[in-house]
């Protein structure tokens, strides 16, 4: 008894093209608004073309500055290839408003695994007056040496804005950088934090 070859009778799988942004959103235009803090208004004016070009040309998202509302407004276009581009662009602009350089923040457009995490010194320990000033000084180090050492070891970017700290990087690297910064806030000497960083980064290097 012959077994019928059923493989030839199987239907051919259809090959669908990726949906366009306006198709996913049922043809509706999607918006995002990013507020501009007063102290970032002048830097935004200077870096406007560096921000505008990748968003408009590469991500195919419309962008404009609403001078009255002091907000950067973003919206999808009919030729936007992916609806997620809108959120990526909003994250990019928001990272710039937090104080990151354009060349660092633009990586949020190109890599999916990057995030920005923010916390305050008081979230770690309640400090006031000179104690708070000394903690901020420990985070930066002399001439920013400590901050640069943590950034280079963990492949992150750190912005210390008064009592707020913002970290840009991958999930695992943000955790390492955050732990180091928390140790400094709690009073650990920089040397001890450096040696712990070296041990953790060496373990990470072995894993990869």
Name some characteristics of this structure.
single chain; three-stranded antiparallel sheet; alpha+beta; Ribosomal Protein S8, Chain: A, domain 1; 208 residues; 2 domains; flat; 50% helix
- What is the H/E string? HEHHEEHHHEHHHEEHH
Strands, total number? 6
Largest pleated sheet: 3 strands, antiparallel
What portion of residues belong to β-strands?
15-25%
What is the level 1 CATH name of the largest domain?
Alpha Beta
The percent range for helix content is 40-55%
CATH fold topology of the largest domain:
Ribosomal Protein S8, Chain: A, domain 1
As residue ranges, the low-confidence spans are none
Overview of this protein structure:
With 208 residues, the protein is an alpha+beta fold. 50% of the residues lie in helices and 17% in strands. The chain has 2 domains: 21-110, Ribosomal Protein S8, Chain: A, domain 1; 115-207, 2-Layer Sandwich (Ribosomal Protein S8, Chain: A, domain 1), CATH 3.30.1370. It has helices spanning 21-24, 41-46, 48-58, 84-98, 102-105, 107-110, 121-124, 129-140, 145-154, 171-185, 190-207, and strands at residues 31-35, 61-66, 71-76, 114-120, 157-161, 164-170. The strands form 2 sheets. A 3-stranded antiparallel β-sheet has the order 1-3-2. A 3-stranded antiparallel β-sheet has the order 4-6-5, sandwiched between helices. β2 and β3 form a beta hairpin. Its main location: nucleus.
Topology, element by element:
Elements: H1 21-24, E1 31-35, H2 41-46, H3 48-58, E2 61-66, E3 71-76, H4 84-98, H5 102-105, H6 107-110, E4 114-120, H7 121-124, H8 129-140, H9 145-154, E5 157-161, E6 164-170, H10 171-185, H11 190-207
Helix pairs in contact: 9-11, 10-11
């Amino acid at each position: 008894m012959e077994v019928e070859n059923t493989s030839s009778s199987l239907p051919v799988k259809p090959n669908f093209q990726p949906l366009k942004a306006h198709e996913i959103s049922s043809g509706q235009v999607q918006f995002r608004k990013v507020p501009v803090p007063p102290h970032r208004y002048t830097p935004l004016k200077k870096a406007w073309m560096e921000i505008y070009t990748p968003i408009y040309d590469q991500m195919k998202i419309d962008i404009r500055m609403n001078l009255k509302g002091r907000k950067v407004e973003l919206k999808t276009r009919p030729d936007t290839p992916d609806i997620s581009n809108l959120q990526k662009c909003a994250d990019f602009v928001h990272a710039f408003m937090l104080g990151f350089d354009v060349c660092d923040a633009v990586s949020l457009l190109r890599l999916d695994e990057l995030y920005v995490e923010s916390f305050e010194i008081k979230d770690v320990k309640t400090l006031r007056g000179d104690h708070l000033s000394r903690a901020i000084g420990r985070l930066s180090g002399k001439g920013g040496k400590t901050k640069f050492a943590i950034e280079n070891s963990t492949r992150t970017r750190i912005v210390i804005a008064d009592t707020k700290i913002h970290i840009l990087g991958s999930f695992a690297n943000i955790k390492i950088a955050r732990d180091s910064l928390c140790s400094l806030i709690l009073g650990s000497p920089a040397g001890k934090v450096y040696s712990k960083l070296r041990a953790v980064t060496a373990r990470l290097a072995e894993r990869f």
